[in-house]
Amino acid sequence: MAIPNSYDILQAVMEATPDAIFVKDLEGCYVVVNEAFARFIGKSPADIVGKNDFELYPEADARAFVEADRQVLASGHAQAFEGVATGEAGPQTYLVTKGVYRDRDGKILGVYGISHDITELQQAHETLEQTREALFRSQKMEAVGQLTGGIAHDFNNILAIILGNVELLRAYLPHDPYADEIVDTVLRATMHGRDLTGHLLAFSRRRLLNPQPVDVNGIVDSIVRLLGRTLGATVRVTTATSEDAGIAFVDPAALEAAVLNVALNARDAMPDGGSLTIRTSKVDVAAAPATDDDLKPGSYAALALEDTGCGMSPDIVARVFDPFFTTKTGGRGTGLGLSMVYGFAKQSGGTVTIASEPGRGTTVTMFLPMAGRDQQSPAISAASIDMPSVARTILVVEDEADVRNIVRRQLESLGHRVLVAEAATEALLLIQSPGAPDLLLADVVLSGGMNGIELAKAARAARPGLPVIFMSGYTAVAEAQQRMRETGAPLLSKPFTSPQLARAINAVCSPTAGTRDG
Prior knowledge:
By secondary structure, the chain is α/β, with parallel strands linked by helices. The chain contains 15 helices and 17 strands. Strands 2-1-5-4-3 form a five-stranded antiparallel sheet, with helices on both faces. The protein has a five-stranded mixed sheet with strand order 7-9-10-12-11. Strands 14-13-15-16-17 form a five-stranded parallel sheet, sandwiched between helices. A hairpin with a 3-residue loop joins β11 (351-357) and β12 (361-369). The protein is elongated.
């Protein structure tokens, strides 16, 4: 068998490799190119040989290639360069190694190059980086959510003690305008604190939501009338709704609050006036976007608010959902508005995204889960019924001593007989003893191994049909909220007033009130 010469071997290798190989002379004209190089340019090798970069590439690409050649010729050593070149099929990210070739005497004759297409590798790297960033954001928001949820729980317990004692103090104090004014001031401050923790709970996804089928376009129509008065005459509000947006499964009051929060932020971003456009549509998500790896594939109702305000830089956009982060000055912002929107969307099973550029406005889009045919409103409401109270025996289960004592005093002031327990095991003994309670009022979060929901189920196993009310400074994750709904028992969010407590008791103990033993 004849052995091919080295030139034939080299030529065969050059044509077989997928990498683009080329050789230029000192004038920058191509002397040799392989088929891979020619395919990228979209010409035959014969049409390329003798031409320079400016005759084959866009000017910006050609200048970059010539500069790389200059550096290699100046150093006399091989160097690697990375960039983007435009060929017949479009842009390509490349990694090219360039070096000089010499004659037998060592004289430089020109430049050679071997270019490898790394477009797919670069795209994979960018996707990986986006996934890492999304994971980092998700973990950060989850950690901050757990922290704020815990703070809100403890703070609500403190507010419950303040509110309950101030209410009792007012009842026992002789009527005095000056004293009444002081009490009113404390009550207003307590309610403000309750609103603040409500925003924290919304961000941490631990607020009790009452999801139900909601007409997204109907919500938009109703809130636009409110926005006209709230945003002022300098902001023009328009809508672009789609019938495909359909029915979402969310808490309507929380959705309205979220839209209002975004709209108020838009108004503040347009001090000289502008326009706010609210759009709705149906979006089918095949895979979670890089900005949110928790979003499940499926159909979502998209509700977008687009303003013509000042916009935000990327570093500001990266922090807008963080609690207490605000760019507003003079104490005009709490930094909790958009974090509440984030928490609402995530807790509802959707997400929220934001797109903004300085000078080009901002678009905030909420993705809301569509309602299924079998989804019904849980309709748990403890504070909507008001009727004369009847003296009852009520068991209070609360592991915080000061909270336990103030709830006991509130109930006694309403004329009820009160039993108290610190843990579920103690409560179960009282439920099965003589003088057993007519109603169980239990905190959701209890120490000692059994929480309030588990206690309610055990209590009803021992006493079928026992009325139950839950109370908590915050509600836990969605699964716990679902288990709470399954009991049919309402939740009183701390801090609560004595009238709210009385209405809840009357509601669950009324002759028409139903209970579930599950």
